[in-house]
Every structure is written in structure tokens, then in C-alpha cells.
């Protein structure tokens, strides 16, 4: 006779197979989805158990062992610049502009020498390009003057750079220095609240909750798994619950899950 553990593993495997085949969950009607999202934003979604969190990230890891950020960069400096440019813009849009910019300036010295007007011309397809050009040149000058042209590896020092906030600093610390940080963008904020994984009224609250509940062994890649999940599956207006690999764990009341027995 199969043990409870064996049966549980079999149920999980079956649910995961269904999810990957698009049969594990279906969305409720639009009005029910909207009501569910409002409920989630008020922190009313049921919390996850430790076992559920562990299982969700086990699946993310199994599906994508080495997730990568989608912003193109050459080194820590160009990463900082790319993330600054990505504020209120898409990664795809930034990636179209940065090849020409980084070909001319892949160090703080080259960027400062390029000057604000030239940088502005090279990134004019990106939203808020005037302010971003100003910040990119200013942060380059600050790196030269105060950090020996090296990108610092502490959040405090990074946040002192023009145009760099907590989210940008966390991205750089994670991607450039391998620190287990959690950069909460609109996608992660949505997932934290919608699923019930880490509800919070602002990005910092969601960040701190995620750092609290995600097992340490998954933290290095957790930021990317969640961003990619929000970007390609747990979409803002039309979440793809039928393709979601954690649909049976997610607590969002805007969907229903098929019986996996």
C-alpha cells in the first residue's frame, strides 16, 4: 500500500503535469476576477503554508534552474545604467536603445565623457529619457569621484547614486554580486498580493514578507522566477491560470482548480 508521502508526491506530479498542459486551472468570469483582485489588495487572500511555499519554488526551480534577467548589460556598470533606464519602461524597449549606448560607453569615464546631450540622444526612445540621461551621467561622475569607478556592493552606497532607488539597488546586488535580494517591481507586487504569497500595501512590505517566507536555498533566483512568472503567466489583466505551474497552490479566488485526484 502506498504511503501518504508517496500519494502526495503522485498528486503533486499529476497537478504539475496538468498545469503544464493547461488543464489545471480555469479563470472565473471577469467580474469575479476583478473582485478577487480587490480582495487580494486588501490582504484578504488566505496565507500559504511553509510546505506550499517550498513546493512552489521547487517547481520554479525545476522548470527554470538558472533564470536570467532580461536586461542586456556587459558589466556591473552597464547593469546599473540599464536598470535606471528601465524605470517606467519595458526591458525590451531599453534593450533596443542600450547596444548603441554601451558600444560608446561601457565605463563611468566613457559615459561621463559622452555627456548628457549625447546620452539623451541615444536613449530618446525610452520614456523619461531627459531625466534618465541626466541621472546616468551624474551617477557615472559619482562613481568616478567616490568609488574609484567601481559599482559599490552595498544597498546604502548604491542608493546614493542618482536615479538609483531601493528596487534598482536590489537588482544590482542580486545580478552583479550574487546577493539574495528581492527587487519588488509591479509584477512581484501583483504576485505577492494576488496569490497570497506575500501580501503588502507597498513594495517594501511585499519585499520584507518575501524575504521572510521564501526558503534561503531559493532566494538567489527567487527574484527572477517571480518577475518572469508575473511577466509571462500571472499577467495583470489576463492571467494565464490554465498554464500556471503553481495554480493548485495559488490562493487567488479569481480562478478554480481542477481536481488532481
Kindly describe this structure.
The structure is a single chain. By secondary structure, the chain is mostly helical. It folds into two domains: 24-67 and 182-257, Endonuclease Iii, domain 2, CATH 1.10.1670.10; 76-177, Endonuclease III, domain 1 (Orthogonal Bundle), CATH 1.10.340. 58% of the residues lie in helices and 2% in strands. It has helices spanning 4-20, 30-41, 50-63, 76-85, 91-104, 108-114, 116-122, 129-147, 155-159, 166-177, 186-195, 203-213, 219-232, and strands at residues 25-27, 255-257. The longest helix is centred in the middle third of the chain and has 19 residues, at 129-147. The model has no long low-confidence stretch (mean pLDDT 90).
State the gist of this model.
The protein is mainly alpha-helical and 261 residues long. It is 58% helix and 2% strand.
Which secondary structure elements does this structure contain, and how are they paired or packed?
Elements: H1 4-20, E1 25-27, H2 30-41, H3 50-63, H4 76-85, H5 91-104, H6 108-114, H7 116-122, H8 129-147, H9 155-159, H10 166-177, H11 186-195, H12 203-213, H13 219-232, E2 255-257
Antiparallel strand pairs: 1-2
What characteristics describe this protein?
mainly alpha, Endonuclease Iii, domain 2, Endonuclease III, domain 1, 2 domains
Report the CATH topology name of the largest domain.
Answer: Endonuclease Iii, domain 2
- The radius of gyration over CA amounts to 21 Å
Count of helical regions: 13
Return the structural class. Answer: mainly alpha
State the shape: elongated
**Widest β-sheet, arrangement of strands:** 1-2
What's the mean pLDDT score?
Answer: 90
CATH class of the largest domain: Mainly Alpha
Instruction: Report the order of strands and helices.
Output: HEHHHHHHHHHHHHE
Beta-strand residue fraction: under 5%
Terminal Cα span: 17 Å
What about the largest sheet? Answer: 2 strands, antiparallel
Overall strand count: 2
Low-confidence stretches: none
CATH architecture of the largest domain: Orthogonal Bundle
- Name the CATH superfamily assignment of the largest domain: Helix-hairpin-Helix base-excision DNA repair enzymes (C-terminal)
The helicity comes to 55-70%
How many independent structural domains?
2
Amino acid at each position: 500500500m502506498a504511503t501518504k508521502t508517496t500519494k502526495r508526491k503522485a498528486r503533486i506530479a499529476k497537478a504539475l503535469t496538468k498545469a503544464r498542459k493547461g488543464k489545471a486551472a480555469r479563470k472565473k468570469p471577469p467580474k469575479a476576477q476583478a473582485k478577487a483582485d480587490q480582495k487580494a489588495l486588501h490582504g484578504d487572500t488566505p496565507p500559504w503554508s511553509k510546505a506550499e511555499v517550498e513546493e512552489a519554488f521547487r517547481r520554479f526551480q525545476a522548470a527554470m534552474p538558472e533564470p536570467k534577467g532580461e536586461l542586456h548589460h556587459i558589466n556591473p556598470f552597464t547593469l546599473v545604467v540599464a536598470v535606471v533606464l528601465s524605470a517606467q519602461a519595458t526591458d525590451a524597449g531599453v534593450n533596443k536603445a542600450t547596444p548603441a549606448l554601451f558600444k560608446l560607453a561601457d565605463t563611468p569615464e566613457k559615459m561621463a565623457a559622452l555627456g548628457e546631450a549625447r546620452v539623451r540622444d541615444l536613449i530618446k526612445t525610452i520614456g523619461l529619457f531627459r531625466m534618465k540621461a541626466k541621472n546616468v551621467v551624474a551617477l557615472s561622475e559619482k562613481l568616478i569621484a567616490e568609488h574609484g569607478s567601481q559599482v559599490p556592493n552595498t544597498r546604502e552606497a548604491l542608493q546614493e547614486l542618482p536615479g538609483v532607488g531601493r528596487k534598482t539597488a536590489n537588482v544590482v546586488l542580486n545580478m552583479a554580486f550574487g546577493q539574495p535580494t528581492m527587487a519588488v517591481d509591479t509584477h512581484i507586487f501583483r504576485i505577492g498580493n494576488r496569490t497570497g504569497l506575500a501580501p503588502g500595501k507597498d513594495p517594501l512590505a511585499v519585499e520584507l514578507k518575501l524575504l521572510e517566507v521564501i526558503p534561503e536555498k531559493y532566494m538567489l533566483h527567487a527574484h527572477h522566477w517571480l518577475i518572469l512568472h508575473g511577466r509571462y503567466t500571472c499577467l495583470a489583466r489576463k492571467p494565464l491560470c490554465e498554464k500556471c505551474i503553481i495554480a493548485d497552490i495559488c490562493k487567488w479566488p479569481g480562478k478554480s482548480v481542477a481536481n488532481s485526484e
